[in-house]
């Protein structure tokens, strides 16, 4: 699935990284706990989260993720946007809640990478 | 890569949670420039990142030294924090002494040290109460 489709499925507002809309991603994960993302995630390219602080971007960067979606209309701070720009990570924000956002993407064919 | 080991030193600021992880980001870039494999880079940067977060949460910051030689990447994290009273307990997944405000930042789930062990080939903790902690981690190339 292209990042563009994630934006469409989630009716998300693009914050930074419009030039990456045609990048292909194959799996995603959702968590507000960055420790868990660091512990359990493997090769997921997209992170959905309701957490807003700079460590969300750093965690994504450490895990080689290329897109972060903020759920429940959360908006990243200016320093987060700057970090994401430096790291080449796309940021977007959706009004949908975590459960719905994950469900919509999963139903659209974006799995969690497990057993794939 | 040259036969001589490459050494990098970083100071980890303990006052600012926002800046935690800066050293790991730099190490990630350096290792990429050195042509280290993606898998090793990821394991080193996650282990070091967790270590940095720990030093900021528990020890008021510290120092990080990274040594790259022909066989491995070694990370030495040194702090002058309160020390770890019971290392075996601290190594258990889910055990945490982090304050609640840290949990609201997405950390403090008791996964830091276990993650550091999980992603490295060797990890050693030396800790003295009231004096500080030295954690040495090695990821083989």
Key traits:
heterodimer, A: 116 residues, alpha/beta, Udp-n-acetylmuramoylalanyl-d-glutamate--2,6- Diaminopimelate Ligase, Chain: A, domain 1, five-stranded mixed sheet, 5 strands, 38% helix, B: 141 residues, alpha+beta, Heat Shock Protein 90, five-stranded antiparallel sheet, 5 helices, 35% helix, 28% strand
Biggest sheet character of chain A: 5 strands, mixed
CATH topology type of chain B: Heat Shock Protein 90
Secondary-structure arrangement, i.e. CATH architecture of chain B: 2-Layer Sandwich
Largest interface: A-B, 21 and 26 residues
Q: Sketch the major β-sheet of chain B.
A: 5 strands, antiparallel
Overall CATH architecture of chain A: 3-Layer(aba) Sandwich
Describe it for me?
The complex is a heterodimer of chains A (116) and B (141). Chain A is α/β, with parallel strands linked by helices and 116 residues long. Chain A has helices at 3-10, 34-40, 54-62, 78-87, 98-107; strands at 13-16, 28-30, 46-49, 67-70, 90-93. Chain A has a single domain, classed as Udp-n-acetylmuramoylalanyl-d-glutamate--2,6- Diaminopimelate Ligase, Chain: A, domain 1 (3-Layer(aba) Sandwich). Chain A has 5 helices and 5 strands; from the N terminus they run αββαβαβαβα. The longest helix of chain A has 10 residues, at 78-87. Chain A is globular and about 35 Å long. The mean pLDDT of chain A is 94. Chain B is of the alpha+beta class and 141 residues long. Chain B has one domain: 2-Layer Sandwich (Heat Shock Protein 90). Chain B contains 5 helices and 5 strands. Chain B has a 5-stranded antiparallel β-sheet with strand order 1-2-3-5-4, covered by helices on one side. In chain B, strand 4 (122-128) and strand 5 (132-140) form a beta hairpin. The chains are: A alpha/beta (116), B alpha+beta (141).
């Amino acid at each position: 699935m292209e990042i563009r489709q994630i934006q469409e499925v989630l009716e998300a507002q693009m914050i930074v990284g419009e030039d990456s809309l045609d990048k292909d991603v194959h799996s995603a994960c959702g968590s507000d706990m960055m420790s868990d993302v660091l512990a359990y995630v493997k090769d997921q390219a997209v992170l959905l989260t309701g957490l807003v602080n700079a460590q969300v971007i750093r965690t994504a960067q450490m895990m080689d993720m290329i897109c972060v979606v903020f759920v429940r209309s959360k908006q990243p701070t200016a320093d987060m946007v700057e970090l994401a720009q430096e790291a080449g990570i796309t940021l977007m924000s959706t009004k949908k809640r975590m459960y719905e956002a994950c469900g919509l993407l999963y139903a659209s064919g974006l799995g969690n990478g497990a057993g794939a | 890569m040259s036969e001589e080991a490459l050494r990098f030193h970083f100071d980890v600021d303990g006052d600012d949670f926002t800046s935690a992880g800066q050293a790991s980001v730099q190490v990630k870039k350096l290792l990429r420039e050195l042509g280290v494999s993606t898998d090793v880079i990821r394991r080193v940067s996650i282990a070091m990142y967790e270590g940095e977060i720990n030093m900021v949460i528990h020890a008021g910051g510290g120092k990080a030294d990274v040594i790259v030689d022909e066989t491995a990447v070694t990370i030495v994290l040194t702090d002058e924090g309160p020390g770890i009273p019971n290392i075996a307990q601290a190594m258990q997944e889910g055990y945490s002494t982090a304050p609640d405000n840290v949990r609201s930042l997405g950390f403090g789930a008791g996964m830091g040290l276990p993650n550091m062990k999980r992603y490295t080939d060797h990890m050693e903790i030396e800790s003295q109460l009231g004096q500080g902690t030295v954690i040495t981690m090695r990821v083989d190339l």
